[in-house]
Backbone:
């Protein structure tokens, strides 16, 4: 199934080829989890501070058990702040 | 120690300047800067005063750590009754001006009365004088700062000044120092303009002493190590600045767009930190030139930017083809998402003009967004706008209005009223996205519930810098809470409000709180200042300051009825994103908040609370 991957700030360098505006579509297996995708893209796990599926925060201990559905958006940031 | 223990009182009506000893009893209860200056202000000013009357006063105040080697310790604040809000106003700024004031030997400068003619205050250590500023009236912040340095033949003078907007009464004019750092909110620059005070220029070389130098160096260095080792303050903020939030908040579904009709903006990426770093087509260079730090700061979140030289705003205007203060998140949101404009160069240009003419980009952008909705529904037409086609998404309308507002000309004079007065004037007060007359910053209170309570109860009108619960609700600092629920937010908001009042009163930047807790701050204050400054003491100081400000507002005529959000946020559910279907749950949070604060159901501190805090 296809999902949309969004990597921001210093994680942008891990985006697949062809990414536009920090986004890329990725073919993944059914019920793929954020942890599986993080490993596949080679993202340093400790830099994956904020992981959102369709804008909803996924806590670290839920990233290996939460499945994505087709068309879901998985967005990941390193530790950032502002204001 | 740490405090200079001296203030300057400047009577602009009489043209007199006098020195006074700092009230150390008050310093021990209110620390400095925001807290201590507010104490002076409420003791000396009638809460019912017209903000633009000579009877209103304006205080520029440093904190005890200002000018020391603690990280970020260059802050000062401007305290007055706000021209935009009629509430207590305290606007905090970085740069180098605060450090210079402290090094000249003053904790604060109190301005009272109003000069008959334009003047500026020049402080050269112990020598302070009012100087005629007639030849600077009608000039920008940038030209004023250049001229003062040139006249005194000293480029090291630090200047805080107002632009033409402050002279002409734009309700949200700022005090701008060091060209592009600003005490930005609530119209403190408007008050300064009403006093015919064009600028304050300072050269200070005396140094700042602390109580226990060895312990202070150890505490300050420990604090710096915490900042350097924290991924947010050590890596994220210096590299990407606050603008990294644009995509975060949009993805979270809490990015107010087009006057808060929507909670997500299609053009968010185009105006984000990531876009600022992308090479542009015309010259292969990115918008972002480099980051920048204020005095003593080891974070350096500031942005220095250029505009594409082929862009319509600057193609024929080489004076703007330079590197200058770039977009911070709040400004980029207001100038962009709030207006539906996704042209990064247009936003950067508007931001330059806000700095040059000295007015708040948050209130300006949000007011333009409100005007665009008024235009869309036909409440205003080309007749009122002077022919400006004021459609959502129009970069040209935004940049035209930026220039007009800066000089308070044409329809810009109406934009300068702020959204509340503008929307009321045209019969649609409900379209002003504001609290106590001040426009919201960049977080939608349907998608981040704690921010609704933050805005409603902020003592200076809608503001993110009074309790930044975004840190917890979105960013997971210090721990993650769910942004979509209202449970637990009353306590969260109170905790953030009290702690922030301490940071704002110490002379340090609130951004250190992304890495520091009061456990990191207390040892620095305790080593620098006489007295016992434990975490518990500081928390009590923070709560005392909050109640002091609240009391002033209550006496000024504000009531619990003013602790409210616009109907749009309470009745129109978010249309997209995680908050889809949600409205703000303010009505569920507010009673609990009052209870936690020790206030009556009408939002008034009880005698027991006032007694406990020594108020």
Residues:
């Amino acid at each position: 199934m296809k999902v949309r991957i969004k990597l921001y700030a210093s994680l942008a360098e891990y985006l697949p080829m062809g990414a536009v505006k920090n986004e890329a579509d990725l073919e993944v297996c059914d019920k793929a989890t954020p942890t599986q995708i993080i490993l596949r893209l080679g993202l340093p796990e400790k830099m994956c501070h904020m992981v959102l599926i369709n804008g909803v925060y996924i806590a670290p201990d839920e990233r290996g058990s939460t499945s994505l559905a087709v068309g879901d958006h998985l967005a990941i940031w390193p530790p950032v702040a502002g204001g | 120690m740490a405090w200079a223990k001296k203030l300057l009182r400047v009577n602009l009506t009489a043209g007199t300047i006098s020195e006074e000893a700092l009230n150390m009893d008050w310093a021990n209860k209110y620390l400095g800067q925001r807290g201590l200056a507010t104490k002076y202000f409420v003791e000396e000013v009638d809460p019912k005063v017209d903000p633009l009357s000579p009877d209103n006063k304006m205080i520029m105040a440093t904190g005890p750590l200002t000018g020391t080697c603690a990280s970020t310790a260059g802050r000062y604040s401007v305290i007055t009754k706000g021209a935009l809000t009629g509430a207590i106003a305290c606007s905090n700024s970085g740069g180098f001006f605060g450090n210079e004031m402290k090094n000249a030997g003053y904790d604060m400068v109190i301005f009272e009365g109003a000069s008959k003619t334009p003047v500026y205050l020049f402080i050269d250590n112990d020598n302070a004088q009012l100087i005629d500023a007639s030849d600077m009236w009608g000039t920008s912040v940038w030209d004023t700062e250049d001229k003062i340095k040139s006249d005194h033949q000293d480029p090291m003078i630090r200047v805080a000044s107002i632009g033409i907007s402050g002279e002409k009464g734009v309700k949200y004019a700022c005090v701008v120092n060091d060209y592009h750092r600003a005490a930005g909110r609530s119209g403190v620059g408007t008050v300064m303009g009403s006093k015919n005070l064009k600028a304050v220029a300072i050269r200070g070389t005396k140094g700042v002493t602390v109580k226990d130098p060895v312990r202070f160096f150890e505490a300050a260095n420990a604090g710096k190590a915490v900042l350097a080792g924290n991924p947010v303050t050590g890596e994220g903020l210096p590299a990407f600045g606050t603008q990294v939030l644009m995509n975060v908040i949009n993805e979270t579904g809490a990015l107010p767009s087009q006057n808060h009709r929507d909670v997500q903006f299609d053009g968010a990426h185009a105006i984000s930190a990531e876009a600022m770093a992308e090479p542009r087509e015309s010259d292969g260079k990115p918008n972002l030139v480099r980051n920048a730090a204020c005095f003593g700061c080891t974070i350096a979140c500031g942005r220095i930017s250029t505009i594409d030289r082929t862009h319509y705003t600057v193609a024929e205007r080489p004076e703007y083809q330079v590197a200058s203060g770039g977009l911070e998140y709040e400004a980029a949101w207001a100038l962009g998402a709030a207006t539906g404009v996704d042209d990064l160069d247009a936003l950067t240009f508007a931001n330059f003009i806000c700095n040059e003419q000295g007015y708040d980009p948050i209130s300006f952008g949000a007011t333009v967004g409100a005007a665009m909705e008024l235009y869309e529904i036909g409440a205003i037409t080309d007749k009122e706008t002077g022919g400006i086609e004021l459609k959502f998404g129009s970069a040209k309308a935004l940049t035209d209005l930026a220039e007009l507002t800066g000089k308070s000309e044409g329809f810009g004079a109406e934009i300068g009223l702020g959204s509340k007065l503008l929307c009321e004037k045209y019969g649609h007060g409900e379209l002003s996205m504001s609290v106590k007359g001040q426009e919201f910053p960049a977080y939608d209170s349907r998608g981040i519930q704690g921010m609704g309570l933050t805005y409603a109860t902020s003592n200076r009108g809608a503001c993110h810098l009074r309790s930044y619960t975004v840190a917890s609700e979105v960013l997971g600092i210090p721990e993650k809470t769910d942004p979509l629920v209202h449970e637990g937010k009353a306590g969260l908001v109170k905790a953030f409000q009290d702690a922030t009042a301490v940071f704002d009163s110490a002379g340090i930047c609130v951004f250190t709180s992304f890495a520091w807790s009061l456990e990191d701050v207390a040892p620095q204050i305790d080593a620098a200042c006489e007295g016992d400054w434990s975490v518990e003491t500081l928390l009590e100081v923070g709560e005392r300051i909050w109640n002091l400000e609240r009391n002033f507002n209550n006496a000024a005529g504000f009531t619990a009825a003013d602790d409210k959000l616009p109907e749009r946020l309470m009745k129109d559910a978010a249309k997209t994103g995680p908050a889809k279907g949600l409205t703000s749950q303010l009505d569920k949070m507010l009673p609990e908040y009052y209870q936690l604060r020790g206030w009556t159901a009408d939002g008034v501190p009880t005698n027991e609370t006032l007694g406990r805090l020594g108020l």
